[in-house]
TrEMBL record:
It comes from the Bacteria. Its cofactor is Ca(2+). Keywords: Dioxygenase, Fatty acid biosynthesis, Fatty acid metabolism, Heme, Iron, Lipid biosynthesis, Lipid metabolism, Metal-binding, Oxidoreductase, Oxylipin biosynthesis, Peroxidase, Plant defense. One of its GO terms (biological process) is response to oxidative stress. InterPro entries: A_dioxygenase, Catalase_sf, Haem_peroxidase_animal, Haem_peroxidase_sf, Haem_peroxidase_sf_animal, Oxylipin_biosynth_metab. Transmembrane segments: none annotated. GO terms for molecular function: heme binding; metal ion binding; oxidoreductase activity, acting on single donors with incorporation of molecular oxygen, incorporation of two atoms of oxygen; peroxidase activity. This is Catalase. Residues 415-452 are annotated as: Disordered. PANTHER family: ALPHA-DIOXYGENASE 1, PROSTAGLANDIN G/H SYNTHASE. It comes from Gemmata massiliana.
Length: 991
């Protein structure tokens, strides 16, 4: 039987190893690139093309046996337009006379959706038994030839090294006569229908002899020979199939063992014909270049012809990675030698120092280097992939050409940010609740939320507490979270609270099942209390919470780990403003007078238009129309309006600079500019405002612009992390230890609801006095007042409030008010009795606690340990606020290990100047950089050719103050002089 045997416990275990082989092949290509002194990477193998044609013919025999008649292999079937590439096997460009093997790659097109790739070499066996040996040999070969034997002996042992050398020396001929006279064997077997498998080979059949045989000393004699032969007539090969006999004499997993013809006789089943042609004309040279850029992989086939064996399973991921690197779709950033030497010493030194002095009590320069070391450790140990690995591997279609507009612009759903893995970070299609996929892109799963917590910690958290274990989340909310009186964060203004919700809406959205659909998470109400789960519904003895919808996975690595899809794409692409599908784009963009779309976003009198989708049937009021308008309130309306206006200004400037650009091109470029501007504002303005210390200011400005230019900082960063000398925007994309995603722990630390006040004073920027407007009351009436509660400024009430007060007064009202401090006893009471648009009534603080437990977030003490902080032994080690330790002790029954992470983060004494805890900040250290570093539009494609010179300059010279001043110039005098736009503004009427 043609049965495969996987390395490790199961196919999933082997898949991890194969991914490591793919990473290693990139290093081989980089070494070869440096050794060949080229400005671009070559193929890891078969780099030097000797023939590339697109007009060959594959013809199956008319008497093809019935047991070999499978799929496209039919008696008498003929396929034209077959692509053939002949090459030398080395990864270096070297003379044809050098000792080497030779290879052939063939692509047969059966239909627009069915292709079959065959990759073969002119040796009946592989030098490598499996993929691991194959990559080890490639690594050894890429270095010094003198060191090759020693590397193989060290890496693979003497027996394997000798066998590999023997095979290579036997078949790597220095001076073969002609590529047309070589036999080419497949590397490993392949299926031939459901019940058969075997190897294939191409054997020389007929070819014209060259008129003038080239000298074998010529650097390109093989190319000259095949060209001369084809000028005189066709070159033909017979296709032979050698069936599997048994696992001993014709092994599936050992590609180095010869399948002897006397054991299993090959059967002639067809012929490959390369027709007569002149390879030296311009058209033929263009074809050859096109063929040379193609990506061949034996897994470009159908299930009937699936490749078998470890070496073939390795080829799938290795060849795909190698091709992506060669095409510039995948990148490799290696740690410099001096960082590998000095980095561990510095990190060990800082770990010892931090036992006595935490990083935030060091000076800015030492503190910044301390954070670089901590970020390095977090990147290595706290990025965990939760995508199900492909196991066993499956066949794949030939990759389609990536559209030009995708190379230089973001997609609505987040695909093609990473061109080597197009669905990395993408949203699902269709999204939950959507009836069908958009016609512009096929259905596909969304990216999952990754993890910062090791998976064993997540499993332990789920086993220990379940979703609603003790203490009761309602009791935790009432006794530790509920706002008793408003505690302001006086170093910030309320724009900072609106900003972070504006960002979170771009990043994360868990799929949920409405309570009305059943299956809710039920939390018993304590002490005989009741709760109305729907507006106007009956009192109940339990609170019902809409559950998140988990992803079903068969991957044993993820057993016991709750995995969820991110309904938003995870890239920093301003999706909350632009939407997540082509349908959103049609709705949000300004129509032109010819039935098309302009590049501008649609505004009405400078404000967001009313939504035609989200309307209140009782009052006729509508939400404002934008890319994402859930949990809508006046703060979000301010941010969306400002940046929709900014988009339109950027479009206008681009149109003047590039009058020939199409509207779609203008729109895509403006979106790039706005998304990058938002990322920059968050990195170097909002975060330093909420974490107001010189160390953070230096570190985050360094993230964007590079390390400070003084010699001491430059030397220190060069020793610890040389890549940080430049800003992330000048580096290559790097996902570090796992494919890019946002994480469940990231969602947890961004629960910053205490920032939201319960009541608001609406003021006139001219006088600083209250400005009364008509607001709804809960009983359906109206009242004219300048003092509004949260309910009156949220949901369907938002648009009316914005229209009455105007953007300038709304911005001023927020800029001169404070948000709440991120502490215990400051959770907004309006969010603890929030009514959703569907009528569900929720206590958001309880929902946060339940979701945290349900998603397997480690409890606070384990969370600390996870981010490399010491565990606490008592409640008093967490907080110095009088009475808080005693309150937590009472709620958690004296067990400090039982504290919910959200509660611990809110209670923890923050560093001086910080708006939240150091424990939460450690996730920020990791994920803030990751959102920039993984994104090609914020790294390798952050360049004028993509953004336009005007667009790139716009990002570099614009800040939040500039955005506000451009659209509300009347507010300029009130802005803080030497602080960010998120610091408190000067009220009107002050001298």
């Amino acid at each position: 039987m043609c049965t495969e045997r996987y390395d490790g416990e199961n196919p999933y275990s082997e898949a991890d190893h194969l991914r490591q082989l793919a990473e290693r092949i990139l290093r081989v290509q980089k070494w070869l690139q440096e050794r060949n002194r080229l400005g671009h990477p070559l193929r890891a193998f078969h780099a030097k093309i000797r023939l590339g044609v697109e007009n060959a013919v594959l013809r199956f025999n008319g008497d093809l046996p019935a047991n070999l008649t499978v799929g496209f292999a039919r008696p008498g079937a003929e396929y034209r337009g077959v692509i053939v590439r002949l090459s030398n096997a080395s990864g270096s460009i070297q003379p044809d006379a050098k000792r080497d093997m030779r290879g052939i790659a063939i692509r047969v097109k059966v239909s627009s959706g069915e292709f079959h790739d065959f990759l073969m070499t002119n040796g009946p066996v592989s030098h490598a038994k499996n993929g691991t040996e194959f990559i080890a040999f490639a690594e050894a070969l890429a270095g010094s030839r003198l060191k090759l034997p020693f590397r193989l002996l060290f890496n693979l042992g003497p027996y394997t090294a000798i066998r590999m050398f023997r095979n290579v020396l036997r078949y790597a001929c220095a001076r073969i006569e002609s590529l047309a006279e070589e036999t080419y064997w497949s590397r490993g077997p392949l299926k031939w229908g459901p019940d058969r498998c075997g190897r294939v080979r191409f054997v020389p059949a007929t070819s014209t002899k060259p008129n003038q045989p080239p000298s074998k000393d010529h650097i390109d004699y093989l190319r000259l020979d095949i060209a001369d032969r084809l000028r005189g007539g066709p070159v033909e090969f017979d296709l032979l199939f050698q069936p599997f006999f048994d696992k001993e004499k014709t092994p599936i997993e050992d590609a180095s063992k010869l399948w002897r013809d006397d054991v299993s006789a090959p059967i002639k089943i067809g012929r490959l014909i390369i027709p007569q042609q002149d390879l030296d004309v311009a058209e033929a040279r263009a074809v050859e270049e096109r063929v040379d850029r193609m990506v061949f992989n034996p897994w470009h086939t159908t299930d009937d012809f699936r490749p078998l064996g470890h070496i073939n399973r390795a080829r799938k991921v290795v060849y795909a990675a190698s091709a992506s690197y060669r095409l510039g779709y995948r990148f490799l950033t290696e740690e410099p030698v001096h960082n590998r030497v000095f980095g561990p010493l510095f990190r060990a030194g800082f770990r010892l120092l931090n036992v006595f002095v935490p990083w935030h009590r060091l000076g800015p320069k030492l503190g910044s280097m301390n954070l670089l070391g901590l970020r390095y450790v977090l990147r290595r140990e706290n990025l965990i992939d939760t995508e199900e690995r492909e196991a066993p591997p499956v066949v794949v279609p030939v990759p389609v050409q990536i559209p030009e507009e995708v190379l230089a612009g973001r997609t609505e759903d987040g695909r093609f940010n990473d061109l080597s893995v197009p669905r990395m970070g993408a949203e699902p299609n269709p999204r939950v609740g959507e009836p069908s996929p958009d016609p512009d892109h096929p259905p596909g799963p969304g990216a999952t939320f990754g993890r910062n917590a090791p998976l064993d910690l997540v499993r332990a958290a789920r086993r220990r507490v379940g979703a609603v274990a003790q203490p009761n989340p309602v009791e935790v909310s009432e006794r530790l979270l509920a706002r008793r009186h408003f505690i302001p964060a006086k170093s910030l203004n309320l724009l900072a609270a609106a900003w972070i919700q504006f960002q979170v809406h771009d990043w994360v959205d868990h799929p949920k099942t409405p309570v009305a659909n059943g299956g809710s998470v039920e939390v018993p109400m304590p002490g005989g209390t009741t709760w109305q789960n729907t507006l106007g519904g009956p009192p109940e003895d339990r609170m019902r919470i809409a559950p998140n919808v988990p992803r079903v996975t068969r991957d044993p690595r993820l057993a016991g780990v709750p995995v969820f899809e991110n309904q938003n794409n995870a890239w920093w692409d301003a999706g909350q403003l632009y939407g997540y599908s082509a349908v959103d784009g049609l709705r949000l963009r300004e129509p032109d007078n010819r039935g098309g779309l302009r590049a501008e976003l649609r505004l009405v009198d400078g404000l967001l238009p009313a939504s035609t989708i989200f309307q209140d049937p009782a009052t006729g009021q509508a939400l404002e129309d934008t890319g994402f308008n859930e949990n809508w309130w006046l703060g979000l309306s301010i941010m969306h309006t400002l940046f929709a206006r900014e988009h339109n200004v950027v479009v206008g400037e681009l149109r003047r600079a590039h009058p020939g650009w199409r509207e779609d091109h203008l729109f895509r470029t403006a979106r790039l500019v706005i998304a990058a501007l938002i990322a920059k504002i968050h990195t170097i303005e909002w975060t330093p405002a909420i974490l107001a210390t010189p160390t953070i200011d230096m570190s985050l400005n360094g993230n964007w612009s590079g390390a400070p230019k003084d010699w001491l900082s430059q030397l220190g960063v060069w020793l610890v992390d040389a890549h940080a000398l430049k800003g992330i925007t000048e580096t290559l994309p790097d996902h570090h230890a796992a494919p890019y995603s946002l994480t469940e722990e990231f969602v947890t630390v961004y629960r910053l609801h205490p920032l939201i006040p319960d009541d608001y004073l609406l003021t006139d920027f001219r006088t600083g006095r209250p400005q009364a407007i008509d607001l709804l009351t809960p009983d359906g009436g109206r009242v004219k007042t300048a003092t509004a509660d949260f309910w009156q400024l949220q949901g369907f009430n938002t648009r009316s409030a914005m229209k009455q007060i105007g953007l300038a007064n709304a911005v001023y009202s927020f800029a001169t008010a404070h948000p709440g401090a991120i502490t215990l006893h400051n959770y907004p009471n309006h969010l603890r009795r929030l009514v959703r648009r569907n009528g569900e009534r929720i206590d958001l603080s309880v929902v946060d606690l339940v979701r945290e437990r349900d998603r397997g977030i480690p409890r606070y003490n384990e969370f600390r340990r996870m981010v490399h902080k010491p565990r606490v032994r008592s409640f008093h080690e967490i907080t110095s606020v009088p009475g808080w330790a005693e309150e937590m002790n009472a709620v958690y029954g004296g067990d400090v290990d039982n504290i919910d992470t959200m509660v611990g983060l809110l209670a923890e004494n923050p560093p001086t100047g910080f708006g939240f805890s150091d424990t939460a900040f450690r996730i920020f250290i990791l994920m803030a950089s990751r959102r920039l570093q993984s994104d090609r539009f914020l790294t390798v494609d952050f360049r004028p050719e993509v953004y336009s010179p005007l667009g790139l300059d716009w990002v570099r010279r614009t800040g939040m103050k500039d955005v506000i001043e451009r659209h509300c110039p009347e507010l300029s005098a009130h802005m803080p002089r030497n602080a960010s736009a998120f610091a408190p503004w000067r009220p009107a009427g002050l001298g």
